[in-house]
Amino acid sequence: MPAALDVIQPVCCAPLVREPLGAEDAEELARAIKALADPTRLRLLSIVAASEGREACVCDLTEPVGLAQPTVSHHLKILAEAGFLSRSKRGTWAYYALVPGSLDRIAEVLKG
Amino acid sequence: MPAALDVIQPVCCAPLVREPLGAEDAEELARAIKALADPTRLRLLSIVAASEGREACVCDLTEPVGLAQPTVSHHLKILAEAGFLSRSKRGTWAYYALVPGSLDRIAEVLKG
DNA sequence: CCGGTGTATCGACATCTGTCAATATCGATT
DNA sequence: AATCGATATTGACAGATGTCGATACACCGG
């Protein structure tokens, strides 16, 4: 059993184009970007982000992306572990919300 | 034999958090982000970007990342096809240069 | 306490990906 | 032309990844 949540740290690194990335920083940044490097996860993120309160229930996410529920849960977990989404269970339902600033941090690193 | 270079188009899409991404836009954006989702490629990008004239010779890239030359060539090709690097051969040497604005476009889409 | 519903985990599978050694290609130099 | 040095391509292989069905795990309403 892994740690309670083991979310990846807030992402490292000075802007890519400033100075050569060290091996460890590159690993860490790549882990975060990998979580974004999938069309389904990008769609999930954007649906959540465009929803009221920037959060959405799993039940609202399965149909739009047209994939099986376990698959959607899997993708949401990856996004949560990478720190882009947070999970809060209310009753039977699980709500995933955009973590404010998480995408911006990546954007900052990429920005020239 | 594929087309001469078949570089991916300049990347699509309004900011992620504005409105739900369509399936095709998501595919296209994911293709671009996938090219960035590898520690070696991030390091190559940052080394190139931090070099004089924002370009570097393959011969200068192999040693820093500590991988075999064919592997480095492979990664550079992926970055070039994704539109982040451009290749210019001068004599025996191949120089890869950062394509201005290419990273910023991704950053814009991610930015909240 | 029991059935039902929403979500997560597991196991399996096909596919994709990163890596290297071997080899081909291309350009320069003798 | 013969060779040498730099880069690209090929083939192979281990490991990661996306997907699903089956199943387990809450939580709620009777």
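qc> Residues 38, 40, 67-68, 70-71, 74-75, 89, 91-92 of chain A lie near DNA strand D (CB under 10 Å from a C1').
qc> done
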